[in-house]
Write a structure and sequence with these properties.
Elements lengths: L5 H11 L2 H20 L4 H11 L7 H85 L1 E3 L3 E3 L2 H19 L9 H36 L5 H12 L4 H12 L6 H7 L17 H8 L4
Antiparallel strand pairs: 1-2
Helix pairs in contact: 2-4, 4-6, 5-6, 5-8, 6-7, 6-8
Length: 296
């Protein structure tokens, strides 16, 4: 009984019965058969020697030699030709098998390359999402840290409603004391009101908020994802923003401090959930919003 483990025996059997090995075995068998036929060619020589030893005159052996040569040489030539043909045929089939194996190897390499590319895409998306959600977490932490202290302390997202009311109050006083002309275009009124009542007063609080939010949107915009994938991530950002935040984002974008952010807000309709009822700083607020903030 063989001591070779069954799994090794199976491997040996599979290796010996591959198409290339089987072809080689078949042609080896044919060639061995031909060689066996050729190796009997010494028999006529022995017969001739025996006849001479038995007393047959050597000169009488000529006809026998002519007969043997005339009858065996063509046979030997045919056998040799068949051997050459079999050898060439074997080489041809081996080349075909090698060509097939090379084709299979190329297909395997292509499949491996595609798999590596898919793995690379998956890893790139994982890296992107890790960074994206970390930035989004930081954004929410920044919002929670916002605070305004006046008559009472106001924290988090609640400050944005207070800031909008502060803008209204500031503009009313500016118009009453003629610090801003009533005839000034609405867009200019918004810019002056935002700069004087919000940015100058609360830049230390809001600067970090705007910069971080801008970096998140820009990070998505500069990614190599498709438009639909980018809009999906922007949708996640939108879900974090309150209605009053959107109003402040609009006013900041219309000012000189948000001129880089406004095109991105416009590109991804970041403000499309804005409640137009909150836009009453000037008579033309809603029209300005629709002109400067929605779509491209």
């Amino acid at each position: 009984m063989s001591n070779i483990p069954s799994n090794i025996q199976g491997t040996t059997t599979n290796q010996s019965t591959t198409p290339e090995n089987q072809t080689r075995l078949n042609y080896d068998k044919y060639l061995k058969t031909l060689l066996k036929s050729i190796r009997w060619s010494w028999i006529p020589l022995v017969i001739g020697i025996v006849l001479v030893l038995l007393g047959v005159p050597f000169e009488d052996m000529g006809p026998f030699g002519d007969f043997f040569a005339g009858s065996t040489v063509p046979v030997l030539t045919l056998i040799s030709s068949i051997g050459v043909i079999l050898t060439l045929r074997m080489q041809q089939e081996q080349l075909e098998l090698q060509r097939t194996e090379l084709h299979n190897s190329v297909e395997e390499m292509i499949a491996t390359k595609l798999e590596i590319q898919e793995q690379g895409k998956t890893m790139a998306m994982q890296r992107f999402e890790n960074t994206f959600f970390n930035m989004l977490t930081l954004h929410n932490e920044i919002v929670r840290s916002l605070v305004i202290r006046s008559e009472r302390e106001i924290n988090g997202r609640a400050i944005f409603e207070v800031l909008i009311k502060e803008m209204h109050h500031w503009l009313g006083n500016a118009l009453a004391f003629e610090k801003i002309s009533e005839s000034l275009p609405s867009l200019e009124k918004i810019k002056k009101t935002y700069t004087s009542s919000i940015f100058d007063e609360f830049e230390s609080q809001l600067g970090h908020y705007f910069r971080n939010l801008y970096r998140i949107v820009k990070f998505v915009d500069e990614s190599k994802f498709s438009k639909d994938e980018k809009r999906n991530y922007i949708g996640i950002i939108k879900a974090q923003l309150s209605s009053y935040e959107l109003v402040i984002l609009l006013y900041n974008g219309l000012s000189e401090y948000g001129e880089d952010f406004l095109p991105l807000m416009k590109k991804y309709n970041l403000l499309d959930n804005l409640n137009e009822d909150h836009l009453n700083l000037t008579a033309d607020d809603v029209e300005i919003f629709r002109t400067y903030a929605k779509g491209q």
